[in-house]
């Protein structure tokens, strides 16, 4: 879990537009973030495995 202070700091509007820190909406993780789903790779994998993300299914070939 991410520190609450860093999550709150990321929610404030930045002084410059390039300083935006995108964080996972579920756990607050800043790394491994996917913009399309607005969550980190770990939360994405857990939700996709449970079938909670529409249109996403496990690859098999």
TrEMBL record:
Gene Ontology CC:
ribosome
User: Keyword set for this entry?
Assistant: Metal-binding, Ribonucleoprotein, Ribosomal protein, RNA-binding, rRNA-binding, Zinc
PROSITE patterns to which the protein is assigned, alphabetical:
RIBOSOMAL_S14
- List required co-factors: Zn(2+)
Per the entry, the cofactor note is: Binds 1 zinc ion per subunit.
Q: Does the keyword Nucleotide-binding apply?
A: no
Q: Does the keyword Cell membrane apply?
A: no
Recorded hits in Gene3D superfamilies, A to Z, give: 30s Ribosomal Protein S14, Chain N
Binding site residues for Zn(2+): 24, 27, 40, 43
Q: Which family does it belong to?
A: Belongs to the universal ribosomal protein uS14 family. Zinc-binding uS14 subfamily.
Q: Assembly and partners? A: Part of the 30S ribosomal subunit. Contacts proteins S3 and S10.
Function, in words: Binds 16S rRNA, required for the assembly of 30S particles and may also be responsible for determining the conformation of the 16S rRNA at the A site.
Any idea what this protein is called? Small ribosomal subunit protein uS14
- Organism of this sequence: Geochorda subterranea
Lineage, please? Bacteria, Bacillati, Bacillota, Limnochordia, Limnochordales
Gene name, per UniProt, is rpsZ
């Amino acid at each position: 879990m991410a520190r609450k202070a860093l999550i709150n700091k990321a929610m404030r509007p930045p002084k410059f537009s390039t300083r935006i820190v995108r964080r996972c909406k579920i756990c607050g993780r800043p790394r491994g973030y996917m913009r399309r789903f607005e969550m980190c790779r770990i939360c994405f994998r857990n939700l996709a495995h449970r079938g909670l993300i529409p249109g996403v299914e496990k690859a098999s070939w």
